[in-house]
Model the fold of this input.
Amino acid sequence: MSQLPRIALLGRPNVGKSTLFNRLIGRKKALVDNQPGITRDRHYENITINGHEITLVDTAGYDVGSREELARQLNKVSEAALQEADAAVLVVDGLDGVTPVESSLAKLLHKSGKPCLVVVTKIDAKAAEKTPMESYSLGLGEPVAVSAEHNIGVYSLEQAMLALVASKLQEEGDKTEDDVLRVTIVGRPNAGKSTLVNQILGQERMLTGPQAGLTRESLSTRWEYNGRTFELVDTAGLRKKARIDDRVEKMSASSTIEAIDKAQIVILVLDATAPFEQQDRTIASRVVNEGKPLIVALNKWDLVEDKNATMLDVKWLLSHSLSQVRGVPTVTMSALRGKGVMDLFPVIEKLYDLWNIRLSTADINRALEGLIDSHAHPLNKSHKFVKIKYGAQLGQRPPTFGLWCNRPEDVTDAYLRYLQNGFREVFGLDGVVIRFVTKGGKNPYANR
Ligand code: GDP
Done:
């Protein structure tokens, strides 16, 4: 087997590189000490991010004499490490800021042409606030701010690191769990779930019939479409309950919940001749509350007479029963006849990509500024200003944004909804849940 993707951690001694290394590998291996230069060897450790194995290389740093001497020596060590690495992470001490040594290492990185990123450490400290902004000057893109000690920002860093070696991973054809788009199909008995699955797989994997619950096989199947791997999550629990004694299958709450938890995309199959009964609404809310992308498959469309009226009904019900999400995609189909079934796939892909979207801090703040300009937050009960100063994306799946405010507890739900809708417009985020988290205090990045 060929070598795993390799990422080198570069930086001066004592910038927090070893603490970060330990945090990433999840155990204390390298010695950490406040004495400069204690990490004497180059360490190789394999870590797993989203199921991908990566080799992390911690470069040695000896603190030697003058700054020039240190830079010379670091450049030598780093150059060697870079040569054998696929990508690099330049670690900048949040407290010290950008020094000539970092600039010199950045030059080296530019020259190598390898993917790299800047990480600013010790971001929990107040004195580190300005460093991320300062680090832009290195010309290596948006820095990732972390506190390895307090485990802040480490998840984002891992995702960014994974992106650095994405092409290498792809080269390896290394298909792991996270490349697989896990889809689950849920819905009331008889809505046509099995028929839909059969159509998708193009074969009679399961039995369907006029009575519910004929399907006994559990199912978890993978297939390829448009260069992506899809996996159908096992929803057997939904179907196999029924007995031959005509007992009507009850949708087991726990198995639905389990199926939803495992899924990345949930397709709720509705019988279009009786759409959105209480049970359907319960499932839909569950999916949305979990922050999972939801697609409504309006099945048995062939039996619907007034198609316009039905569509309007469904849209109305969707927007009124699921306030957290706007524009839930709805696909009409006749699973029985195989009509409309393949229309699901582009919708799944688009929604999945939105769910994973990563917006730049600059874009977020530009959007926020515009929205606040056209509609400022009302004064609070004591007639004080409520100001949102800064925003940044905190996470994905679903997209989650932090809003740094002077009075976070006074931000109204109505205003958050306004911002949410604004974000949907600006960034085209219809169909996925987006979350806002209000935060107090100074923003963790620099003052602007
Ligand atoms: P499940 O319980 O949700 O898995 O539902 P099944 O797939 O077993 O389908 C229940 C019944 O509805 C079967 O008799 C299917 O033939 C029928 N059915 C499924 N999809 C359609 C459709 O698009 N149009 C029509 N007319 N009947 C369908």
About this structure: The chain has 14 helices and 15 strands. The CA atoms of residues 15 and 106 lie 15 Å apart.
